[in-house]
């Protein structure tokens, strides 16, 4: 089996004549947290779309634990083990935090049958473990519709985690969060590091510094640089690409 949870090989897509992602090769090790950085329009979201099957690639391959999942249907890629969290929440507002996690855990179709079926002690323990991981133990019985923006994002992360995906894709996990919520999100991600492979798109450099091990910088659809936070921040090509932008220099 591959030592890499996620690999892209010369992955690309063209929209008409425009090459939004142009031959991107990434190797993300099992348990690694990889941050994707890049200016607006660099191709970060499109790359996530290609990996998760939302957009069909026109060249290259995507490998999950060495298995080719290129251009499978989105639900099949999710089922294979690539979980994605979007910015728009998809929680059940009338259910409690715990019930939301239980619904996500169950493989049985239908919300209400999910709540009625018996759960093993191991399943219940895993629900509590995940709720603890995302920092919502005190809100276990809280109706999800009354949670704050940050808490909703953590609940959604928990709903992904309970399905034990091999790889989690997070698109700007701190968008719209307060500073305190951003700090807590960094703590959650740091707790997952090492056990959970993650690919995270993020603009907030202070947050990136808090969580990043290795960063891949995209520019005009290509990999411009790869390295640690310190390496990336001192990279002349990255600085040149960001010139005039606040993203790296200001943080
Ligand atoms: N379906 C599409 N059709 C045509 N062009 C597209 C399509 N999707 C994305 N693009 C273009 O591809 C380029 C990359 O967009 P993408 O959203 O991936 O960038 P990004 O790095 O995620 O930027 P941001 O940080 O602003 O989200 C942009 O120029 C965008 O307009």
Structural write-up:
By secondary structure, the chain is of the alpha/beta class. The chain folds into two domains: 152 residues, Rossmann fold (3-Layer(aba) Sandwich), CATH 3.40.50.300; 77 residues, no CATH class. It is 36% helix and 25% strand. The chain contains ten helices and ten strands. The strands form two sheets. Strands 6-7-8-3-9-10 form a six-stranded mixed sheet, with helices on both faces. Strands 2-1-4-5 form a four-stranded antiparallel sheet, with helices on one face. The longest helix is centred in the last third of the chain and has 14 residues. The chain starts with a strand and ends in a 9-residue tail after the last helix. The mean pLDDT is 89. It binds adenosine-5'-triphosphate. Adenosine-5'-triphosphate binds next to strand 2 and helix 1. Keywords: ATP-binding, Nucleotide-binding, Transport. It holds the Pfam family ABC_tran.
Reconstruct the topology from this structure.
Elements: E1 4-15, E2 18-29, E3 33-37, H1 44-52, E4 59-64, E5 67-68, H2 74-80, E6 82-85, H3 97-105, H4 111-116, H5 121-133, H6 149-161, E7 167-171, H7 179-192, E8 197-201, H8 205-211, E9 214-219, E10 222-227, H9 229-233, H10 236-242
Parallel strand pairs: 3-8, 3-9, 6-7, 7-8
Antiparallel strand pairs: 1-2, 1-4, 4-5, 9-10
Adenosine-5'-triphosphate is lined by residues 15, 18, 20, 38, 40-46.
């Amino acid at each position: 089996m591959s030592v890499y949870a996620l690999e892209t090989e010369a992955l690309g897509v063209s929209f008409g004549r425009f090459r939004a992602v142009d031959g991107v090769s990434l190797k993300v090790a099992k348990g690694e947290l990889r941050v994707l950085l890049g200016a607006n329009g660099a191709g970060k979201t499109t790359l996530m779309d290609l990996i998760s099957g939302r957009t069909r690639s026109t060249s290259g391959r995507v490998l999950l634990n060495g298995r080719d999942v290129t251009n499978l249907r989105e639900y099949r890629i999710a089922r294979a083990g690539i979980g994605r969290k979007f910015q728009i929440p998809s929680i059940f507002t009338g259910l409690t935090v715990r019930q939301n996690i239980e619904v996500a855990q169950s493989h049985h179709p239908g919300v209400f049958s999910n709540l009625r079926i018996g759960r093993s002690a191991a399943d219940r323990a895993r629900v509590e473990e995940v709720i603890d991981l995302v920092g919502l133990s005190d809100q276990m019985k809280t109706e999800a519709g009354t949670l704050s923006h940050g808490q909703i994002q953590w609940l959604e992360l928990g709903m992904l985690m309970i399905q034990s995906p091999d790889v989690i894709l997070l698109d700007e996990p701190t968008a719209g969060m307060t500073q305190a919520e951003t700090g807590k999100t960094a703590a959650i991600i740091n707790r997952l590091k090492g056990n959970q492979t993650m690919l995270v798109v993020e603009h907030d450099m202070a947050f990136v510094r808090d969580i990043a091990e290795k960063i891949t910088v995209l520019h005009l659809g290509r990999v411009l640089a790869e390295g640690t936070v310190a390496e990336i921040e001192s990279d002349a090509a990255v600085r040149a690409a960001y010139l005039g932008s606040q993203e790296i220099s200001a943080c």
